[in-house]
Amino acid sequence: MAVVDFPLPDVGEGLTEAEIVQWRVAVGDVVAINDILVEIETAKSLVELPSPFAGTIVALLAGEGDSVPVGKSIIQVDAEGAIPAPLHPAPGPVAQATPPAKAAPAQGASSKKPAAAPEPVLVGYGSGGRVTSRRGSRTSSAATSTAPAASPATPPVVYPAAAASAVAVLAKPPVRKLAKELGVDIQSVLATGSHGEVTRDDVIRQSQVKTVFRNVATPEWPQEREEYIPVKGVRKAIAAAMVKSKFEAPHVSVFVDVDATRTMDFVKRLKASPDFQGIRVSPLLVMARAVVWAVQRNPTVNSSWTDKDIIVHHYVNLGIAAATPRGLIVPNVKEAHTLNLKQLALGLENLTVTARDGKT
Questions:
Q1: Fewest CB within a 10 Å sphere: which of 8, 226, 260, 277?
Q2: Average pLDDT over residues 295-304
Q3: pTM, two decimal places
């Protein structure tokens, strides 16, 4: 066994750095190939990095919250077997097989420059000869097939025996994470992606679930009324882009026609119910209740933005636009998330009457 460094890979197209969000391992832990080492956040996504080798964790070279440039070592592992080369190998000795003897070329014969050995990559991304990329550092399959064979004098990099079976499945870290969440053995998934890569749709199809959002339970309202989320990483990039688009991009409205037959039937049943006698019932009531329910399942839509934080409100003051003689105003039903359907109907009715009378 020998101590090897694991450099931070470029998990996107041309990313330069990433933030260490959470370590999934500690010094002294024993890891196997494809065990999750760390969760990182780039300007594009949140990614779990799997281990390309097996061994014991020797050192964590970056702390949670640190921004690390691509190519810098983030962890050291006392690896089993031979030493795998890093994603961007630097000159130096590597574990190698003993090359066979090579006869010297005859005098006057032209000698061809041996082709470079394929660049080792992180488990789950395949080899440079199988997956094409826009980056020039990768070699396409077509170019590989026409390139001269590597000289026996070029010693190959020796990987642990288990690595051969691990790289047989091509799948990006988010796809592997989805498979784990759905309880799908990624080894058994039929791949339909280019070059035999397992895609998100392949995993969902294997789990016999058309959408991962089916039958998602509605969570309970948290005890704390507000949650502060620091703006950094992906959110920081999104915030900058959204502020820019507010002033530079054209704004449009999208209109969608839906079949509201069942909604109107529900409204008729409410009007006929003894519990709603004398109470104004309209489709607006159903829509208002649906908004409160949707906010409970998607709390980030009920949030405020500051320069440093996103403030998620775990309560709903539901604004309803009302046309009044003084113009369009938007009074709101306080604590709408605590009201049942009948209470919400009474709140909407009282608020609308008060607004139109100019007594808001």
A1: 277
A2: 88
A3: 0.42
* Token pair belonging to 34: 């494809």
CB 17 within 8 A of CB 28: no
3-state secondary structure of 48: strand
Task: Quote the tokens at residue 6.
Answer: 């694991």
pLDDT exceeds 90 at position 215: no
At residue 117's C-alpha, the angle toward residues 115 and 123, to 5°, is 150
Give the residue-averaged pLDDT of 263-274.
Answer: 90
Closest CA to 115 of 158, 144, 86: 144
CB 313 within 8 A of CB 302: yes
Q: How many CA atoms lie within 13 A of 97 on its CB side?
A: 11
DSSP state of 220: P
Q: Percent helix, strand, coil in the chain (nearest 5)? A: 30, 20, 55
With b for 16 or more beta-carbon neighbours within 10 A and e for fewer, the 206-245 pattern comes to bbeeeeeeeeeeeeeeeeeeeeeeebebeeeeeeeeeeee
| CA-to-CA dists, residue 161 to 152, 197, 201, angstroms | 21, 22, 30
Rounded to whole angstroms, the Cα distance separating 124 from 197 reads 9
Confidence of residue 23 (pLDDT cuts 50, 70, 90): very high
Q: Rounded to the nearest 10 degrees, what angle do helices 341-356 and 283-297 cross at?
A: 120
Which value, to the nearest 10 degrees, does the dihedral of the CA atoms of residues 228, 234, 237, 241 take?
Answer: -90
At 267, list the tokens: 């409204």
What is the average pLDDT across 75-85? Answer: 69
> Which phi-psi region, left, alpha or beta, contains residue 280 (left: φ > 0; alpha: ψ -120 to 50)?
beta
* End-to-end Cα separation, the chain, in angstroms: 76
> 210 vs 205, 206, 243, CA distance in Å?
7, 10, 35
Q: Which residues pair with 20 in a beta bridge?
A: 40
| Residue 113 buriedness (CB in 10 A; 0-12 / 13-18 / 19+) | exposed
